[in-house]
Amino acid sequence: MPSEAVFRLESLLDARKLGRTVARHQAEPAQVVPVGIPALDVALGGGWRRGEVSEIVGPRSSGRTSVVALTLASATARGGVVGLVDTIDRFDPASAVAAGVDLDRVLWIRGPAITVEHARAAVVDRAVHQGVRALDLVVRAGGFTVVVFDAADIPRKFLGALPFATWLRVAHANAGQPTVCLLAGDAPMGRSPRGATVELEAAGRWTGASPQSRRLAGLDIRARVRAAGHASDVTFTFEQPSP
Amino acid sequence: MLFMFFMFFMVKLFDTDLTMFCCLVLDVPAPPGALADVARACSPTVETIGDQVAVFDAAGLERVIGPPGAIGQAVSRLAADRGLTVRVAVAKTAAAAALLAHARSGLTVGGDIQDVACGGLRDLFPRHDPRELDEVLDTFQGWGLRTCADVARLPRAGVAARLGALGVALHQAASGEDVRPLVPIRESRRFIERLELEWPIEGLEPLAFVLARLCEPLAADLERADRGAVEIATRLTLVSRDIHARVLHLPAPMRDARVLRTLIALDLESHPPAAGIDAIEIELGVVPGRITQGSLLTHALPTPEALTSLMARLGALVGEARVGAPALVASHDARAIGMARFAPTDALDGSSGVWPARSSPDAGAGAGLRRFGLPLAARVVTERGAPIRVVPAARGLAAGRVVDRAGPWRSSGRWWAFDHTRWDRDEWDVELAHGARLRLSRDRQAGRWEIAGAFD
User: Fold this and answer.
1) pLDDT tens track for B40-52
2) B79, B202, B205, B207 from B272: Cα distances, Å
3) What fold, for A23-196?
4) Contact A38 B456 (CB under 8 A)
5) CATH number of B12-174
6) Which end of chain B is more exposed for a tag (fewer CB within 10 A), N or C?
7) Is the dihedral of CA A4, A7, A9, A12 positive or negative?
């Protein structure tokens, strides 16, 4: 829900016939791609906006990959094709299938399999530039429902070193297309003005009383959604299927 | 009166023989199209009946070669030079030439068809229903008719009344008349462009301009002929006299000049020539143009042209083996992954297109696993075999105390192999004090611990 201050500002702008300068919270249903989690979809105004660049950010184990997988599952279930720029080759097809992703409709672009935690800076830098170039190619080709740039686990300094115009160029290429462009990383990178940033935190959900039955059942995720004109907090849970 | 005589004289002067046909029949089987090539070398108007018989219009050849006998000999020589054993017949009508060629071996020029057996008429109607043909020819035999002359002597009106249209056609052929005009075969057209360069080209950047110059007329030809390219054969003649040849197979027929040029350029970038380029030749393998119609009921997919170009660019960027659709591998090794060709279809596979609403926020998919392509080595402190502290061998991942864990899950396989495909490990899911949730793996043979992935 918009905050009180924003509501008063919007009313003031409407009174002065300047209401068009403020982005409305609720997007038309046909212009969004839902994630598949009702609470998150409501917070996003129905889902990720098509033609915009949005972000999923958070620290390691905060649920970014799970949200990406559900978004891909939602898009492929509707018959769309999706692109995944896997910058450092960390995509797990088995987890994606468990989330409901139709693998036949996923274009997987695998970057070099590097252990970014201790790789040389030049190697990581090259992988990042290669990933950005691949993202640009896929977005410009068109015809994809969702295109994900998976830069999670890449240290901020490498993404921060990219020219700011990088994300402006991606947003410009994506504008007007029926494509959701998602950037997944440790920190915000460069969403478009009408895109959304979803900041995640998670706690593990463990089940089983005995050491033999103990398992990581899922993640309890708290998400803070920031979009043009509003911010909201939602919580939801992912459950891990039994091994 | 004087004018009419003058015109008759001019016609007789310039037209020694108004019509002349030549028929070739193979005596010994030959490669497909070989006989048609011989006929085509003599005349542009050629009709073939399978690969065994070819008839061509020889009118006008007497001005070049000579009388019909010389024409027949020239054709026989040409066929022999190409390794074909043929019967050749030259006559005023195609029907007479065909009857003579089937009935007599060697070269027959202007012969009489009167004593050709009337069973030979069957060869002139290869596409007709054989049962109907047999019925009429049996009738001729029943009437005591043995030769074409016997059939020709029958009154045509009577043949029409008793045997119908097929009987009339056979009567015409037996009389040496053409039942129908020659239906010439159309020569298959090649879509090929070649350019000899004045100066050799070194490097691929200047080649882009040359490729544009070759691809644009090819694309225009494809458009005019309503064809699409499914194969691109590029042949570069190098300064070293070698030929650098590349063949690209396209997933769908295309005729856009820019797409063709881009695909050739990207392929040559991945497989560059070893020396400077002297000449370039591009030949397209074509099929009839593709008819497409968009649907309001299915999602729009990338067009084949855009997808082919995209895949070529991504392949040049990251390597062709690293672009495609992910695929599960039927293996007991949970780490095994594969890739398949990315070829989406517009079929929804029975999906209603409506995402089913989740019954509750808890009902969902599993937590995503981020697989470390190169597992990260770690030193793990254990207590009674269970991990209690993890110290990764990388600065980028903090060490931590294990606050919760699940496992071990034991798996092993390919015990007969002595390479990296053999495995025997225990896996644990652990949560560290700082919040990281990891999948640990311990090699039971070597005793090494590594971090195989992280839950995210």
Assistant:
1) 888 888 888 888 8
2) 43, 11, 11, 11
3) Rossmann fold (3.40.50)
4) no
5) 3.30.70.270
6) N
7) negative
Q: How far is CA A72 from CA A68, B177, B334, in A?
A: 6, 73, 22
Residue pair B98/B118 in contact by the 8 Å Cβ criterion: no
The span from the CA of B436 to the CA of B399, in Å, is 10
Global pTM reads 0.65
Query: Which residues in B lie closer than 8 A to residue A93 (C-beta atoms)?
Result: 326-328, 337
> Which pLDDT score is estimated for B8?
46
B376 touches chain A (CB under 8 A): yes
- Residue among A107, A144, A222 with most chain B CBs within 10 A, to mutate: A107
- pLDDT for residue A125 is more than 50: yes
ipTM for the whole complex: 0.84
Cβ pair A155:B437 closer than 8 A: no
Helix/strand/coil for B424: strand
Partner A contacted by B339 (CB < 8 A): yes
Q: What is the 8-class DSSP label of residue B419?
A: S
The C-alpha atoms of residue B369 and residue A243 are separated, in whole angstroms, by 13
Which of the four CATH numbers 3.40.50.300, 3.40.50.80, 3.30.1490.100, 3.30.450.20 does domain B191-288 have? 3.30.1490.100
The two three-digit tokens of residue B414, written as one number: 């390919």
B4 has a pLDDT exceeding 80: no
What CA–CA distance (Å, rounded) separates B77 from A56?
80
